[in-house]
């Protein structure tokens, strides 16, 4: 519980944390930002890392001269492209094996039809998914992994991976660079970050809930129809 509270406090005061780190360790901040972004996008078990807010605040520090804008953008592009690539390769490596374990208990719970549907979805809409997922916390961590599991073509994945990374890094870092030090935004930065995260997650959650309710409703109707 204490660890969770410390993590929440870190998210809410990420600007102070980053400022203290820059003042104490200087250029090591680039390595820290690189590692956080790489892990958030590259390791499916770390979707909770604060990528969006770090990019925005990093841009704000570039505006004050405490960090280099070209260096930050270059490092974050490498981190985000490399992270997604690793995540995709992990999904591609372990995905088929998971569905071919020949272990009766697992075979009962794993749905190959769902995997095929996911594959078909990524063949049709995978590009948009990879790009748009960059701007949705948690989803951006799972999207490349699912693309790998569903065997999305490597060349197609990398095109949209690079495109999404460029849009994500440039938009957020430059937004921080131009607007991050405006007094009003600086004063309410934590609230803005939370609103931004909520605005990204809530529509996804509502869409998932609607789909789940619709599926349950269809199953209920089918069940009633079959019982007559």
TrEMBL record:
Keyword Membrane applies: yes
Occurrences of domain VTT (ranges): 49-177
Family, as annotated: Belongs to the DedA family.
Source organism superkingdom: Bacteria
Record-annotated membrane-spanning stretches: 27-49, 69-90, 159-179, 191-213
Protein name: VTT domain-containing protein
Keyword list, A-Z: Cell membrane, Membrane, Transmembrane, Transmembrane helix
PANTHER family to which the protein is assigned, alphabetical: INNER MEMBRANE PROTEIN DEDA-RELATED, TRANSMEMBRANE PROTEIN
Membrane topology: Multi-pass membrane protein
Chief location bin: membrane
Gene Ontology CC, one term: plasma membrane
InterPro entries for this protein: DedA-like (IPR032818), VTT_dom (IPR032816)
Species whose genome carries this gene: Trinickia dabaoshanensis
Cellular localization per UniProt: Cell membrane
């Amino acid at each position: 519980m204490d660890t969770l509270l410390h993590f929440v406090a870190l998210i809410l005061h990420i600007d102070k944390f980053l400022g203290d780190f820059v003042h104490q360790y200087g250029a090591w901040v680039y390595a820290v930002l690189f590692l956080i972004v790489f892990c958030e996008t590259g390791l499916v078990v770390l979707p909770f890392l604060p990528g969006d807010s770090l990019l925005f605040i990093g841009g704000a520090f570039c505006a004050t001269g405490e960090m280099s804008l070209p260096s930050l953008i270059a490092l974050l592009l490498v981190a985000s492209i490399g992270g997604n690539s690793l995540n995709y390769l992990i999904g591609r490596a372990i995905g088929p094996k998971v569905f071919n374990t020949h272990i009766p208990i697992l075979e009962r719970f794993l749905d190959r039809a769902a995997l095929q549907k996911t594959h078909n979805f990524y063949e049709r809409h995978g590009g948009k998914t990879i790009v748009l997922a960059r701007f949705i916390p948690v989803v951006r961590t799972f999207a490349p992994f699912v693309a790998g599991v569903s065997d999305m073509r490597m060349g197609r994945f990398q095109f949209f991976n690079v495109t999404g990374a460029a849009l994500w890094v440039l938009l957020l870092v430059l937004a921080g660079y131009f607007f991050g030090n405006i007094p009003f935004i600086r004063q309410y930065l934590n609230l803005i970050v939370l609103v931004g995260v909520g605005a990204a997650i809530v529509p996804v959650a509502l869409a998932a809930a609607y789909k789940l309710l619709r599926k349950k409703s269809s199953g209920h109707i089918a069940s009633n129809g079959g019982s007559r």
